[in-house]
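The records we work with from here on pair a chain with its fold. These numbers are not coordinates but entries in a learned vocabulary of local backbone shapes. To see the layout at work, look at the sequence and tokens printed below.
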Amino acid sequence: MLIIRLAAEAPRRRRPLSSNVRPHVTAPALSVTLREITAETVRAVINLSVAESQKGFVAPNAVSLAQALFAPEAWYRAIYFGEELAGFVMLEDESLLSPPPPRPEVGVWRFMIDAKFQGQGIGRAALLQIIEHVRKKNLFIKLELSFVPGPGCPEPFYLGLGFRHTGRVEGKEVILELLLAENAA
């Protein structure tokens, strides 16, 4: 299974509120949704970008979308915060292959939240929806993803969502998994 580097949700520095500064709206106040990418939205998805310090953790969305054109197992969506485009996700879902393998696997291939939307809970809300999407298919035992260790890496973010270390490393990437079935060990 090919798993690619992922972007971290970097903590945002909070400024003291003054009378003319509105507080950030948090993810629960506006809905986070996963939507198909269309001809009208593809350029905006390509223009999304993580913080400069995170660019080594995830490929640009243009590269991801180009790869998806030639990967029938690619499932990808734009992440919206209310009506604002906020991120991108791509799964490698072997159940989409024709024919699918007897025991298909699934992994987060790409996941990114645009720099201006980080630190607001949007990534968490989106990844929880992705987990639920995978779980509802009732085909998979686990969901895998990977990260490159280093300052600002997304490891704490993923561990906080229930992912655990597998003990596997592929290249420079540490593999994590989230067990989806209650009886999975």
About this structure: The longest helix spans residues 122-136.
